[in-house]
Amino acid sequence: MESDLEQYILQHTSAEPDYLYRLWRATHLHTVHGRMVSGHLQGRLLKMLVQMIHPRNILEVGTFSGYSAIAMAEGLEDGGHLYTFEVNDEMEDFTRAWIEGSSVADKITFIVGDALTEAPKLGVEFDLAFMDGDKRTYCECYDMVLSVLSPGGFVLADNTLWDGHVVDHDYDNDRQTQGIERFNDYVAADPRTEQLILPLRDGLTLIRKKVEK
């Protein structure tokens, strides 16, 4: 149930496209982890960030149902392209149908496989990356992303507050929580980047790769 404040925020945010709303509903109805889908507020933020950054190429790690990929692709300029990786092949039929049925299908390449090993093989330099995959390997994913990211490029890392578990010691033995905590500490100490955490939904970290002088 949305709070009054959450409803107010959504009422004063650009409307969610009907296609993405239907995808959001279908994700909740037909997948086990429907709450993982980006949704209205984050989707509009992702689109706007793409419009602000003007990336030529976007890398997404963790497609899930395709909502965030479609939202980001909506913000791409002509000639821009998004490559999205999903390691769970059980999502392929559902996700591919929604991506291919979208108005931005020509801007998206959907790949079933492990981005950690497969993304560098594309030979593409990315200006923006969205990390939303396995939290246990966020540090390894982050290093891979930086290796294919252009100087001055941006990384968006999702779920970095992990439902508040990062400050709740009851979850100290949870591997997903440990992965997020390790990632947050790693990024905060990384001299290659500058970063900030937005307390949006489950936490979204904005990271900029520094330009070497």
Structure report:
- The protein has 213 residues and is an alpha/beta fold.
- Helices cover 38% and strands 21% of the residues.
- It contains eight helices and seven strands; from the N terminus they run αααβαβαβαβαβαββ.
- It has helices spanning 4-11, 18-30, 39-53, 67-74, 92-100, 115-118, 138-147, 175-188; strands spanning 57-61, 81-86, 108-112, 126-131, 149-158, 193-198, 204-209.
- Helix 3 packs parallel to helix 4 (67-74).
- It is globular.
Write a brief caption for the model.
38% of the residues lie in helices and 21% in strands. It is α/β, with parallel strands linked by helices.
Low-confidence stretches: none
What is the residue-averaged pLDDT? 95
Shape: globular
The helix fraction, in percent, is 25-40%
H/E order of the elements?
Answer: HHHEHEHEHEHEHEE
Report the span from N to C terminus.
Answer: 49 Å
SS field, number of helical segments: 8
Strand content: 15-25%
Looking at this protein, list some descriptive labels:
7 strands; alpha/beta; 8 helices; single chain; 38% helix; 213 residues; 7-stranded mixed β-sheet
